[in-house]
Each structure stands twice: as structure tokens, then as C-alpha cells.
DNA sequence: CAGGCCACTTAGAAGACGGTCA
DNA sequence: TGACCGTCTTCTAAGTGGCCTG
């Protein structure tokens, strides 16, 4: 009952009224609304959202694969304690203890040795993963007689671990250099073969964690070792010829004041810096960094002249862009070294990539939307702020020279390797593993399994909340309507937010009276609810939805005697809603509906839109359209690319050229036909064939381009990535690719394939979500 | 049971990369 | 050969939801 069809969605996109705009374009409306409302508890805040230029770290991380050394040592006393939540120690339960100790003691140090230039991984026995892998590995070591394919692979990968691993990226880079010198056919062939081989090797090295037993009792790992986070470089004071001016006069600033000034100067091109909130937040925080003298002198931001700092920054950016190839290579290598050293950890016997191993550099805070804290100084994080989490028996990461960590703990009920508290919002930041890791993958898989469970129960749940719309209890009716919205419209739960802490955004449970308008009749529909609010990231949600009479009546009731700033669901919170949901099905929360509806929509749309007889391009268009239907449902928007109009025009002109070519080719074909007719000259026949082929080729090209143009146009303001990465069960896509005979890499790029390795491996043609 | 803390997922923008075409 | 442009990767903000505490 609640699914959007492709027609619905296309309609939504096409119908101007229904287009969900970026908040920035609607600030006027929202302001007017808030003003008219008079009593908005957030006081008529402007809601414009501007795009932000970031002062970001320049280090490009690339995908790497470095070698490592495994040295299996004597059994250490790794985990006598599991440090519980909030860092409080708790004695590990008996059974865990037993499990941890279950690993067989191994002593063949030498044959486990891998080499690494940057990391010497020592894996004590406690590092040995769960029982199932243990058994598998042990068997592989002992008898090597594994028979099944899976066992074979397991043994093979064990063998592979012993060899130093090559670095695919480097390899191909070198290859690339050679190619430039002289690229013969054989060389290219060799390169391709090498690539294939590497791919195969990589596949064999992959940790097939999905074939292993899971840990119980919230245990996330048995062994964790890493090098700690990577800290951004220290501040380099300005060169002598770059000056800051106050009130027209040169002023030499102390290092920290200067650094903070530079943060501001770097952003001068940005609209942010003319916003009053941003400026005043910045100035307030900047003054806190100043020494007494500076604070005495610098009292007005408007008298500050950052021009030279700004210019210096721009020059630097330009210079970086114009670096020579050699310099770029040197840079790249340096970055690669950092990734090699800090970018990986060892988790239960396996090398895993870390997602964000770099400490966030200092800068000015940029919230999204009308964030009250924009412009505040995000301070430099010191090692003394950082908590390290790793195994007791591991090499504890060394803090930078002259520093110490805030704390080193050994909590294997969490997945983070390091954390610190950020000063602007006071929230904790974590260093965690990459999406392709076991820890993330297992959770992801679990998420989709819960959503699939919902599939079996959703009819019953829907029936119930329809019933609940009639309940005598206000709480129940509110819960039912909220659930109806969450299910039908894929709204987020809408946790309560602290006022003034962030931009004024809402989700379902936190909707306010001002966010909906009821229409008894609109556009030929009865009982239409018009939604207009800012959701996560201050993205506007605008939609007009016909709802059931009963829901409509309830909404009217909820609005009675309320003012615009009041909560629509005043008796409801996400906690009570989720409590109710988990009583209906274990693991069920509001968010599961989003996952479920997204995935089921994809599956239905794919069924509906794709045909086996279509061309590859058409199949892909269908896939993208199905993906798009989901993105629209979930309101995943993006700013239209800056180059959109231009590239669209380019594509159109290409299409026009092809059309001309097509006409020409057809003409020539006609001529060739004429000439070949009645003649037995094989030459003429060959010409005819050639012309026929030419027409076919141009026709195909034209079709491909036209399809591409359609896809592009439809995708102008819609972001497909978020749903693909977070909401769509990858097994649906894998099965579709298999059924449609579409290569998987048309749908998932390399890192997506890595992330979804579990799904790629286990999905058969007949998979049903 | 509210409120805060904590851990983890979800999100769009910006920046880096790399293939293509004139 | 280098500009252009689309794609991929990185970055980090902003959500969700569980658990603990008082």
C-alpha cells in the first residue's frame, strides 16, 4: 500500500510543485512562514543553506595494499578484562574467558612471517579469531586436505598470507610509466593479465568473515593492534612578506592567533564569511586565542585585513595544482607512506583498512544550514585529548614525541580504535574501520536481514497501525499516524534535539504544527497533507501526499488548539515509538522501515522496469531509474552540479552530430544498396556490408547517448549514492546483474564491490529480498 | 521516565583522480 | 599535451538508537 511507483516518483520530480528543493531556495518562504506563525519556538530563524568550501587536508588517500608481518607468539594474557562501556572495567564473564582461551597455542613463528616496510605486526595467540576460523585454519595447516571449494580457498589464502603481497596500485603505476615509453600490444596484454592476476590474488586474500561464526555478547574483536591516529602537520608561521593588517597597520600576530586568522582568511571567497553569525562566532573564538596585547588592539573584525593571507592561500592552491608530475609523484609517495603506516590495523588475524585514521585538522566549524555555531574555532586535537583502544597484548601505539595519550583502554565491546571529544559541539569523534571491514560489513548484513524480517511482518504491522488510528488513546493515535508517515513516506524518526545546538531540523516525531498544511481537497485529491520542513543536513522535504481519511481526521485533531511552534505529536517520542516497534518485532526501529521500503522499492522497480531484451545501456538506465525511485522516496538530494548545464549542452551537441552522421551513413548505405543491386561484384557487396555496419554502429552510439542524456537529466538534483550505499540490500543488485547479464562493475565501483563483498559472494540468481 | 552519554550509521560537499578529446 | 569533466574518495557533520543514571 505504501510503495511509490516509478510513475509516482517521476511525477514527483516533474511536477514543479512537488520538487523538493534545497533549503536555500526556500528560505524566504520559510522565513515568511515563521514570521506569520508569530510564535515559533525557534524564533523565525532564516533557513537558507549555503554550500561551503572546505579547508581540508590535502592528503589524498589512495587504495593501497601493503605487506605485513605476522609473527605468532606465545600465548599472552591478552584479555583478562573486557573494559566495559564508559571505560569502566568489568570482569569478563566466564564463558567469554573460555572462548578467548580456546585458541590452540601455536609456535611455528617463522612460517607465519610476512614482511612489511612500515609495520611489524605481532599477533599473539589471543589474536586468534573465533572458533570457526580457528578450526578452519588449523585444519588447513595440519592436513591441507581441504576438499570443498571454500576450504580450498581458505587454505590458499593462508598460503598467500605467507608471501609478501604486492601493491597493485604501485604496480600499475609503474606499468603506466612504461606504457608511455612504448606501448606495444604485448605489453598491454601483459598489463591486462597482471591486473587480472592481482584481482584474483586479492580475491583469494579476502577475509571471508561471513563464513565464520559470530562473536556473542557484544564482543567485537579478540585482538586489535594499530599505530594510532595520524596527526595533521603543525602550523607553519606566515612567511615574512605576508602581513596581517589591523586598521590599516601591519600587525605581527602570535602563532595561534595567526593560525586562526588564516583559517578565516582561507574562507574569504566563501559566502560564509559575510554571515553575521559566522563572523561573530569566529571573532569571539579568535579573541579567546589572542594574547592580552592582541586582544586589547583587535576589537573589531571589520578593521581586520586578511587580504595578503588570503592571496597567499590562493597562490598555494594554485601552485599545488600546477605542480610538476615529479613533484606530484613525490607527494603521492609521501602520502602513500602515511597510509601504509597508519591506514591499517590488525584485527583478529586480519589486516583491515581504517576508514578515517587522520585526526581532523583544526579549522572553523561549518555546520550545515543555519547552524548557530558556524564560524566557531575547531581546535587542534592533541594526543593528550585522544583515547586509544586496542588489545592489551598488542603493540600500544606510540604518541608523537613529547606527548602522551589521554588514556589507553582495552574495550573489545566497541569497534573504535581511537576517540577524542571535539570542542565545538562536545561530541565524541571516533577512528573506525573502513566500510569493507568485517566489523562494518557484518553489521550491514545484519541490518538488511532485520529489514527482510520486517517484510514478513509488515502487513500485520500496517493493519495494526491502521486500527490504532481509531484508538481511544491519544498516544496510540499519534503513534499510529507517525508510523504511517514513517512507513509511507520513509521519514526519519526525528529524535528530539537541543534547541540552539544545531540548525532547526526535524524528523517525523519532531514535526511541528508549522511543518504541515492540511487540504481537504487539492489537485483532485481528497485529504492531502502538505509537508514542508528541513530534515537532516537542512535538506528541505516538500511533498503533498493524499492520506487516508482516518489519518487526516487524526491530524486535524492533533492540530487543535496548537500554535505553529508546537509539536504535532506532543505525546510521542522516538523512544516510545521504538519501544512499541521492538515489541512488535525484535530489532525493529523506525529506521528499519526506511531500509525495508528502500530495498523493496528497488526490487519492485527493477522487476517492473527492466527487460532482458533491452540493450546494456537501457538495462542500466532501468537500474538507475529504480535506484532513483528510492532516492526520491528517501529524499536524497544534491545541489545540481555546477557544470550541469554546460555538460548537458555538450552532450546534446554530440547527439546532434551523431544524428547528422546517422543521416549521412544512411544515405551512403542507400547508395551502396543501389550499386550492389544486380551486381555480382564482391567488392560492392563488401562495401554494402561495411555501410550496413556503419549505420548500426552509429545507431547504437546514438541510442547510448540519448539514454545517457535522459539519465543525466533525471538525475540532476538527485543523489543516488546514499541509497545505494546505505539502504539498498546489495544482494538485490547482485541478483539483478546476474539475471540481466549485466557486469557487476556497471552497478558497483571498486570500493562498493569491496564493501559488499559478502553479498557478491553469497548471492544467487534467485535471491529475493 | 527524562536526560545525558556513547557508539555507530547516514549524509552531502569538496577535493583528488584519471580518462577522453581536441 | 593539457584542459575538461565525470567519477571516486575523503571528510566530517548530523542523524539514530541503546544504555545508564538519578
Care to describe what's here?
Helices cover 46% and strands 9% of the residues. The protein has 769 residues and is of the alpha+beta class. Among the domains are: 6-45 and 470-572, Topoisomerase I, Chain A, domain 3 (Alpha-Beta Complex), CATH 3.90.15.10; 71-215, no CATH class; 600-762, Topoisomerase I, Chain A, domain 4 (Orthogonal Bundle). The strands form seven sheets. The chain has a four-stranded mixed beta sheet, with no helix packed on it. Strands 5-9-10 form a three-stranded antiparallel beta sheet. The longest helix is centred in the C-terminal third of the chain and has 33 residues, at 644-676. The radius of gyration is 30 Å and the shape is globular. Residues 1-183 have low confidence and may be disordered. Keywords: Coiled coil, DNA-binding, Isomerase, Topoisomerase. Residues 32-50 have a biased composition (Basic residues). Residues 364-741 form the DNA topoisomerase I eukaryotic-type domain. GO terms for molecular function: DNA binding; DNA topoisomerase type I (single strand cut, ATP-independent) activity. InterPro entries: DNA_brk_join_enz, DNA_topo_DNA_db_N_dom1, DNA_topo_DNA_db_N_dom2, TopoI, TopoI_C_dom, TopoI_cat_a-hlx-sub_euk, TopoI_cat_a/b-sub_euk, TopoI_cat_euk.
Amino acid at each position: 500500500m505504501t510503495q511509490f511507483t516509478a510513475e509516482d516518483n517521476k511525477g514527483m520530480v516533474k511536477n514543479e510543485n512537488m520538487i523538493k528543493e534545497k533549503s536555500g531556495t526556500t528560505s524566504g518562504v520559510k522565513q515568511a512562514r515563521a514570521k506569520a506563525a508569530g510564535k515559533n519556538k525557534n524564533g523565525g530563524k532564516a533557513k537558507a543553506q549555503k554550500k561551503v568550501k572546505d579547508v581540508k587536508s590535502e592528503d589524498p588517500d589512495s587504495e593501497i595494499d601493503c605487506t605485513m608481518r605476522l609473527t605468532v607468539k606465545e600465548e599472552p594474557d591478552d584479555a583478562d578484562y573486557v573494559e566495559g562501556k564508559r571505560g569502566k572495567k568489568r570482569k569478563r564473564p566466564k564463558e567469554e574467558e573460555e572462548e578467548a582461551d580456546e585458541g590452540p597455542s601455536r609456535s611455528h613463528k617463522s612460517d607465519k612471517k610476512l614482511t612489511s616496510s612500515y609495520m611489524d605486526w605481532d599477533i599473539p595467540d589471543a589474536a586468534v579469531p573465533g572458533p570457526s576460523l580457528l578450526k578452519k585454519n588449523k585444519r588447513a595447516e595440519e592436513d591441507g586436505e581441504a576438499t570443498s571449494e571454500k576450504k580450498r580457498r581458505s587454505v590458499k589464502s593462508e598460503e598467500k598470507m605467507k608471501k609478501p603481497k604486492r601493491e597493485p596500485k604501485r604496480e600499475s603505476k609503474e606499468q603506466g610509466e612504461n606504457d608511455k615509453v612504448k606501448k606495444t600490444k604485448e605489453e598491454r596484454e601483459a598489463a591486462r593479465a597482471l591486473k587480472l592476476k592481482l584481482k584474483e590474488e586479492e580475491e583469494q586474500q579476502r577475509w571471508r568473515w561471513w563464513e565464520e561464526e559470530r562473536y556473542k555478547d557484544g564482543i567485537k574483536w579478540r585482538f586489535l593492534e594499530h599505530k594510532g591516529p595520524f596527526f595533521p602537520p603543525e602550523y607553519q608561521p606566515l612567511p615574512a612578506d605576508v602581513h596581517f593588517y589591523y586598521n590599516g597597520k601591519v600587525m605581527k600576530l602570535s602563532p595561534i592567533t595567526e593560525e586562526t586568522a588564516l583559517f578565516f582568511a582561507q574562507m574569504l571567497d566563501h559566502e560564509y564569511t559575510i554571515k553575521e553569525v559566522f563572523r561573530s562566532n569566529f571573532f569571539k573564538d579568535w579573541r579567546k586565542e589572542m594574547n592580552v596585547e592582541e586582544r586589547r588592539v583587535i576589537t573589531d573584525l571589520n578593521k581586520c585585513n586578511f587580504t595578503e593571507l588570503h592571496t597567499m592561500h590562493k597562490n598555494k592552491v594554485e601552485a599545488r595544482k600546477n605542480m610538476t608530475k615529479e613533484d606530484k609523484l613525490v607527494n603521492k609517495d609521501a602520502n602513500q607512506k602515511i597510509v601504509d603506516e597508519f591506514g591499517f590495523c590488525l584485527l583478529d588475524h586480519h589486516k583491515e583498512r581504517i576508514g578515517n585514521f587522520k585526526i581532523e585538522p583544526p579549522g572553523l566549524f561549518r555546520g550545515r544550514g543555519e547552524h548557530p555555531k558556524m564560524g566557531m574555532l575547531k581546535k587542534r586535537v592533541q594526543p593528550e585529548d585522544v583515547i586509544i583502544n586496542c588489545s592489551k597484548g598488542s603493540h600500544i601505539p606510540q604518541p608523537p614525541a613529547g606527548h602522551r595519550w589521554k588514556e589507553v583502554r582495552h574495550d573489545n565491546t566497541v569497534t573504535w580504535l581511537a576517540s577524542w571529544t571535539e570542542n565545538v559541539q562536545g561530541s565524541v569523534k571516533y577512528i573506525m574501520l573502513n566500510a569493507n571491514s568485517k566489523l562494518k560489513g557484518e553489521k550491514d548484513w545484519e541490518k538488511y536481514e532485520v529489514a527482510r524480517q520486517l517484510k514478513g511482518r509488515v502487513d500485520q504491522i500496517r493493519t495494526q497501525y491502521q486500527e490504532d488510528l481509531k484508538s481511544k488513546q491519544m498516544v496510540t493515535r499519534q503513534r499510529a499516524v507517525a508510523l504511517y508517515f514513517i512507513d509511507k513516506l520513509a521519514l526519519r524518526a526525528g529524535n528530539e534535539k537541543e534547541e540552539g545546538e544545531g540548525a532547526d531540523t526535524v524528523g517525523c516525531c519532531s514535526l511541528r504544527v508549522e511543518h504541515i498544511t492540511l487540504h481537504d481537497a487539492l489537485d483532485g485529491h481528497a485529504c492531502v497533507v502538505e509537508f514542508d520542513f528541513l530534515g537532516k543536513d537542512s535538506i528541505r522535504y516538500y511533498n503533498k501526499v493524499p492520506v487516508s481519511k482516518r489519518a487526516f481526521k487524526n491530524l486535524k485533531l492533533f492540530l487543535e488548539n496548537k500554535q505553529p511552534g508546537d509539536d504535532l505529536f506532543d505525546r510521542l517520542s522516538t523512544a516510545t515509538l521504538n519501544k512499541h516497534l521492538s515489541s512488535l518485532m525484535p530489532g525493529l526501529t523506525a529506521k528499519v522501515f526506511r531500509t525495508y521500503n528502500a530495498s523493496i522499492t528497488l526490487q519492485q522497480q527493477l522487476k517492473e522496469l527492466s527487460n532482458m531484451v533491452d540493450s546494456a545501456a537501457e538495462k542500466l538506465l532501468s537500474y538507475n531509474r529504480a535506484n532513483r525511485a528510492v532516492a526520491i522516496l528517501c529524499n536524497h538530494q544534491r545541489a545540481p552540479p555546477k557544470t550541469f548545464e554546460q555538460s548537458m549542452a555538450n552532450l546534446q551537441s554530440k547527439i546532434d552530430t551523431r544524428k547528422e552522421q546517422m543521416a549521412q551513413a544512411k544515405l551512403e548505405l542507400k547508395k551502396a544498396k543501389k550499386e550492389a543491386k544486380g551486381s555480382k561484384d564482391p567488392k560492392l557487396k563488401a562495401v554494402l556490408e561495411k555501410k550496413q555496419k556503419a549505420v548500426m554502429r552509429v545507431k547504437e552510439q546514438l541510442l547510448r547517448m540519448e539514454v545517457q542524456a535522459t539519465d543525466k537529466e533525471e538525475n540532476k538534483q538527485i543523489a543516488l549514492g546514499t541509497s545505494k550505499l546505505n539502504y539498498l540490500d546489495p544482494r538485490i543488485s547482485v541478483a539483478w546483474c546476474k539475471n540481466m547479464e549485466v557486469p557487476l562493475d556497471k552497478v558497483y565501483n571498486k570500493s562498493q564491490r569491496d564493501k559488499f563483498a559478502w553479498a557478491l559472494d553469497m548471492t544467487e540468481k534467485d535471491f529475493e529480498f
